[in-house]
Amino acid sequence: MQYCVGTKVAIFEDNKLLRDGFEAICNGTPGLSCCGAYADSNSLIHKIERSNPDVVLMDIEMPGIDGITATRIITARWPDIKILIQTVFEDDDKIFNAICAGASGYILKSTPPAKMVEAIYEVQNGGSPMTPNIANRVLRLFQQFAPAVSTDNENYILSSREKEVLALMVEGNSFHNIASTLFLSYETIRTHVKRIYKKLHVASASEAVAKAIRQRLV
Amino acid sequence: MQYCVGTKVAIFEDNKLLRDGFEAICNGTPGLSCCGAYADSNSLIHKIERSNPDVVLMDIEMPGIDGITATRIITARWPDIKILIQTVFEDDDKIFNAICAGASGYILKSTPPAKMVEAIYEVQNGGSPMTPNIANRVLRLFQQFAPAVSTDNENYILSSREKEVLALMVEGNSFHNIASTLFLSYETIRTHVKRIYKKLHVASASEAVAKAIRQRLV
DNA sequence: CAAATTTTCACCCTGGCGGGGTATTGAAAT
DNA sequence: ATTTCAATACCCCGCCAGGGTGAAAATTTG
After folding, report:
1. How far is CA B80 from CA A134, B115, B125, B126, in A?
2. pLDDT in tens, B129-165
3. CA distance B138 to B96
């Protein structure tokens, strides 16, 4: 285990040449350092705990636990760790599953080192670097799954306070809870709720919640 | 109308300065040429027919027909025209709708000219350039609507009757309504609902509805 | 067949929710 | 300066939702 500074990158890649190459690239880049380079995802949790990375460079095709499963495990346990998937394939199913597993980026192995380093910086800063082709597939997947919700787009203009209340309703809070959360009177919340119902053309909390989620009002 | 070579770009942008700037950038770049620069989407079809672009640079915020509607119209009629959305805002709803409307890329107006030219090349070559932050939002939207395959969920094993009741709850029906819809007693519905709550670990209709929608239980 | 599960129905009670008002304040728009 | 609207707050009333308990058919399962 070496001393690590800046953004700590852990590498999961079964090909030793590539693995060593990535490690060299990381350690050779100011602000980056490799805190672990592994050939497989065995003892995954232990490896992550020991290396304590900010970003994980994850190969999808690995012996044993595959990269997508590993991604799912890591994001479930460490939501703040960014995972950059890298692969030789760009098929829809893998992309879809990787995204659902919580990947923050998806790049091809053919990506030149300079772009790869840039990608690591981007995930670290909340971005989601994707090879343009991958991005295109994501958009197409999205269009494929979205029409179910993009139906009646009435323009509901809720005030900021109303949106706030609605958001808390979606989380399942009672009006009393919402009141104490926002440091407001219970009756005030009820007034807001009544207005929300009028604006959304609904008559119950469940309906409001359903509409809020479906139309992404919160 | 000027003579056009290479990739023909049409620009829709209400701000004259930006519009002229983009036009200059396009015409000043080898392989690109501006085949039309418009301040609004009036006579949209006629404008597209006349300029016959390969790529459309579309501003979302425009007087009259907004950019998303324009995108929808163009992609419906000319599926091969690539549309690059550009905007100052990066809010989820606009991104979502733009993607559903068929946009091929989504960049911020703050994108430097060099990156913008690169983005035009990328859409033309089947890619989907996105600002890293936008890409991140797209991924998050995706994760929000896609957990259909994430099997690591809890014991949400609802009986078929319970799923049926839950589905009617999601549609906003009252228990009395559900009872008469299913030709059952009101008390029966209440019993089912209580069991649903226990299984989903919730304590109200709103929570159950939210969980049902989010976890794709209906 | 017996056991387990699902589905069905019933009653009581408390409290929160939905609908109807009314009213004051401050900020933004005109 | 006046109007409009968002945000705040309170009242009453009725009813449905949520919780507990119990139990009897029907169906699936062992």
Report:
1. 19, 23, 12, 10
2. 888 778 888 887 777 665 544 444 455 678 888 888 9
3. 8
Q: What is the pLDDT of residues B91-127, one digit of tens each?
A: 777 887 888 888 888 888 888 888 889 889 888 888 8
Would you tell me which residues have their CB within 7 A of strand C? Answer: A 174-176, 190-191, 193-194, 197, 203-205; B 157, 159-162, 182, 184-188, 190-192, 195, 204
DSSP helix, strand, coil percent of chain A (3-state; round to 5): 50, 15, 35
Q: Do B7-145 and B160-214 show the same overall fold? A: no
Architecture of domain B160-214: Orthogonal Bundle (1.10)
Which pLDDT does position A217 carry in this prediction?
67
Q: Chain A: nearest CA to B99, how far in angstroms?
A: 7
CATH number attached to the domain at A7-145: 3.40.50.2300
What is the number of other CB atoms lying within 10 angstroms of the CB of residue B160? 7
Domain ranges of chain A: 7-145, 160-214
Mean pLDDT for chain B?
84
Question: Band of the pLDDT at A84, cuts 50, 70, 90?
Answer: very high
Q: Closest partner residue to B146 among A127, A131, A145, by Cβ?
A: A145
| CB-CB under 8 Å, A150 with B174 | no
Share of chain A above pLDDT 90, in %: 22
Which amino acid, residue B198? K
Cβ B147–A171 below 8 Å, yes or no? no
Q: How far is the CA of A193 from the C1' of D13 (A)?
A: 18
What are the backbone angles phi and psi of residue A168, rounded to the nearest 5°? -70, -30
